Amino acid sequence: MSNVTQTILLAGLGFMGKMHAQVYKRLSGVSIVGVVDERVDRARESLKELGISAPVFASLEEALKQVKADILDVCVPTDRHTHLSLEGFRAGMAVFCEKPIALSVEQADLMIAESDKRGLAFQVGHCIRFWPEYQALKGLVESREKGTLLSLNLTRRAGRPAYSANDWLLDESRSMGALVDLHIHDTDFVHHLLGAPESVRSVGLRDKAGWSHVFTQYHFPDTLVLAEGGWDYPTGWGFEMTYQAIFEGGVLDYSSSLPTTLRWTSRAGNPEPFPFPQPEVDSGASAGGNISSLGGYYNELKYFTDCVKEGRKPQVATGEQALHSLKTIHAELKSLESGKSTECETSREVRA
Ligand SMILES: NC(=O)c1ccc[n+]([C@@H]2O[C@H](COP(=O)([O-])OP(=O)(O)OC[C@H]3O[C@@H](n4cnc5c(N)ncnc54)[C@H](O)[C@@H]3O)[C@@H](O)[C@H]2O)c1
Which of 42, 50, 76 to mutate to test the pocket of ligand 1 (most atoms within 8 A of CB)? Predict the structure, then answer.
């Protein structure tokens, strides 16, 4: 423990909390000093499987009486993000909160205001901004090495999640369905790559778990951008994220389910692997395992813990950026309900 320079309190040890725990194990000088989870016994069991020793508390309030930490990492269901993040800031911790920042714009505003008021770092888990193959696409758009980006098609397809605590993901009032829980990753990446769209037009399918499968066109003056996101595939089908980015010079295409995930095909050529940087594991990594499978999760948490350590305000996946993406998702929701294109509030704010 002597080289520990940063301490983490991890709230929520379900699917994503366990993913984050695996990353923290691999970051040198970082230690999980407590876990908060309503399902205490299950969380204790998970920690044992992960080979991490830390006390488990049933609530953040209880944890704060007994442990002190630099960072609160919020991996609880989305409808609890605002409450826990505000408590974290008020206890003097920097906060990393999973995506989406919150369900409503008003909740997100409160979180950003609290972090600003206290001068505490805040980052949201928009991990696709940190995903190596998506970083490669951003690099190619910015360098213009292959000419202008003509069109971009993004997909995020999955079976219906059956794993979440008390099935919160299938309760629209807690997750806002696949539209917000899954598809927001691509909406956020579109913002990261091209800025706010002028307007959006969405169509989709809805059932008792909310908008479960969505197709959106993001309107930009010079680039055609489409995204499909949803969990209407059979459960056994698994998960896949892809993009096809057509440039003047050829196509860059990514699929999480192919052995060669990223390929470039020039106008006169055949598909060939496209090189991209893999996350670097800290020299002080405390565990083995396949770090590349942690991809953007490793990169985003390394970035955040470095920012906090060095007293820097994160510039990527900030609260404000997450709010912009949430506003566009709400424009998509309006479009789904009205059947019409909807102007994006963020775009109007940027133009004003
Ligand atoms: N970035 C990504 O790729 C990604 C992927 C999946 C989930 N997520 C996000 O991560 C968050 C968690 O999702 P998940 O898939 O891990 O869900 P999950 O149901 O697997 O885990 C949630 C955990 O939080 C605990 N919990 C619930 N309410 C709590 C409370 N008030 N205090 C303490 N613990 C509480 C539950 O017992 C459970 O262990 C969600 O916001 C989700 O959108 C992000």
Answer: 76
The mean pLDDT value for 257-282 works out to 89
Is 11 close to ligand 1, i.e. is its CB under 6 Å away? Answer: yes
Q: What is the pLDDT of residues 232-253, one digit of tens each?
A: 999 889 899 999 999 999 999 9
Say yes or no: CB of residue 102 within 6 Å of ligand 1.
no
Q: What b/e readout covers 223-252, taking b as 16+ CB neighbours within 10 angstroms? A: bebbbbbbbbeeeeeeeebbbebbbebbbb
Cα R_g (the chain), whole angstroms:
20
Torsion of Cα atoms, 282 then 127 then 240 then 323, to 10° = 180
Asked whether 21 lines ligand 1 (CB < 6 A), one says: no
Q: For residue 101, report the distance from its CA to the centre of ligand 1, in Å.
A: 13
324, containing H or E segment: helix 319-338
**HSE on the CB side for 316, CA within 13 Å?**
20
Q: How many Å lie between the centroid of ligand 1 and the Cα of residue 156?
A: 19
pLDDT value of position 2: 53
> Could you tell me which residues are beta bridge partners of residue 306?
none
What type of residue sits at position 116?
D
Q: Which residues are registered as beta bridge partners of 230?
A: 157, 213
Question: Do the bridges between strand 224-233 and strand 239-247 make them parallel or antiparallel, or are there none, so unpaired?
Answer: unpaired
CA of residue 219 to ligand 1 center, whole Å: 32
CB 210 within 8 A of CB 182: no
Pairwise CA distance, residues 57 & 14, whole Å: 14
Distance 19 CA to ligand 1 centre (A): 11
**3-class DSSP state of 220:** coil
To which residue do tokens 């909740």 refer? 107
Ligand 1 pocket test, candidate residues 10, 16, 300, most atoms within 8 A of CB: 16
Cα–Cα distance for residue pair 229/180, rounded to 1 Å: 10
Average pLDDT over residues 291-297: 71
